[in-house]
Amino acid sequence: MTTSEDRYTAEPFVPEGASLSALREAAADCRGCPLHRDATQTVFGAGSKDARVMLVGEQPGDQEDRQGRPFVGPAGKLLDRALAEAGIDPGEAYVTNAVKHFKFTQAEPRKRRIHKSPSLREMTACGPWLAAELAIVEPELIVVLGATAGKALLGSSFKVTEVRGTVLEREIHGRRERLVPTVHPSSVLRADDRDKAYEGLVHDLETAARALA
Fold first, then answer.
1. Which partner for 83 in 10, 29, 88, 111 could form a disulfide, CB atoms 3.0-4.6 Å apart?
2. Is the full-model pTM beyond 0.90?
3. Helix, strand, or coil (residue 48)
4. Could you read off the pLDDT of 66-90 as tens digits, one per residue?
5. CA angle 138, 144, 146 (to 5 degrees)
6. Strand (E) or helix (H) holding 74
7. CA 195 to chain CA centroid, nearest Å
8. Residue 170 dihedral angles phi and psi, to the nearest 5°
9. Reduced to 3 states, what is the DSSP secondary structure of residue 158?
């Protein structure tokens, strides 16, 4: 018998016509790919269904996996600061990830869990959750945070360095969307020149703020 994990899709777990809260509840039981086996829990999106802007990152990190909410770790705190500086109220945004489970490597139990990028197959498997979130929130603008989120939304040839800080118009999951790609805030934390990297992130988010004005 072929299981949904063999087919790598969350589609059977996504209830049709559900509210955000019902989606979040259903996502807790998602077995659409093997990532759920090692993760602590599903980390679904957070924010209002009336949010004008949706921020899409890669996947939950260690803190998000433990707390069950997106962008609560160091990268999330940096993102909130950058959004506020750019003129976007972080409390009025809907935040989510392309992949809803934490993918990591771990040398041995109780050692630090090291982030591992999800595969295209895993991103595609999780796509129905993101499509459902977009259908409910209907954001005026999507801010794409990093290469993985960009590939999940815009295809495998996406390169954040080529289009960051620009307003794109594309059809995403059957809807015409406006998108502003930028780097993932975690890349700012890893940058050699963190101040310059942070300024670049704020500059891109200012483009998003103007697009929402």
1. 88
2. yes
3. coil
4. 999 999 999 999 999 999 999 999 9
5. 155
6. helix 74-86
7. 24
8. -145, 160
9. coil
Q: What is the dihedral of CA 72, 37, 184, 115, to 10 degrees?
A: 100
Distance CA 7, CA 12 (A): 11
Q: Are 6 and 15 within 8 A, CB to CB? A: no
Reported as a single tens digit per residue, the pLDDT across 32-61 is: 999 999 999 999 999 999 999 999 999 999
Rounded to whole angstroms, how far apart are CA atoms 46 and 9?
A: 22
**Distance between CA atoms of 130 and 109, rounded to whole angstroms?**
32
Which residue carries 């959004």 as its tokens? Answer: 83
Burial (CB count <10 Å: 0-12, 13-18, 19+), residue 89: exposed
Asked whether the CA dihedral 61, 63, 69, 72 is positive or negative, the reply is: negative
Select from 56, 75, 63 the least CA-distant residue to 177: 56
